[in-house]
Amino acid sequence: MATLSGARATGWETQLGALEPGKKADINVIDFDNLKVRKPELVHDMPAGGRRFVQRVEGYEATMVAGTPIFERGEHTGAMPGRLVRAGRESAVLAAE
Question: How far apart are CA 88 and CA 97, in angstroms?
Fold first, then answer.
């Protein structure tokens, strides 16, 4: 319900918000009994020496974007099926899919 409500609020419910045929399958599989948040760390991995904070967690068994696993047990799989959506360009991205 949380994802469907968010999709409705943003006007994306035709693409997102529920596990149904034709919709994006973005899923987190969480082991709540072992969920732990680690201390944030500053990493320098952006272009031109940019930096960002990364906060890792334990207990996330898998994260899938568009049905493709991108993280498994905290490790990136190398898959990058998603797209960047910038403010004001959401309708163009949805129309392209």
Answer: 17
Q: Given phi > 0 = left and psi -120 to 50 = alpha, else beta, which region is 88? A: left
Local structure of 79: helix, strand or coil: coil
Amino acid at 74: G
CB atoms within 10 A of CB 62: 15
CA atoms within 13 A on the CB side of 46: 8
Residue 92, both tokens: 């163009």
d(C-alpha 79, C-alpha 57), whole Å: 19
Phi, psi of 86 (to 5 degrees): -95, 155
From CA 16, how far away is CA 72, in angstroms rounded? 22
pLDDT in tens, 50-59: 999 999 889 9
- Give this prediction's pTM: 0.61
Work out the percent of the chain whose per-residue pLDDT is above 70: 85
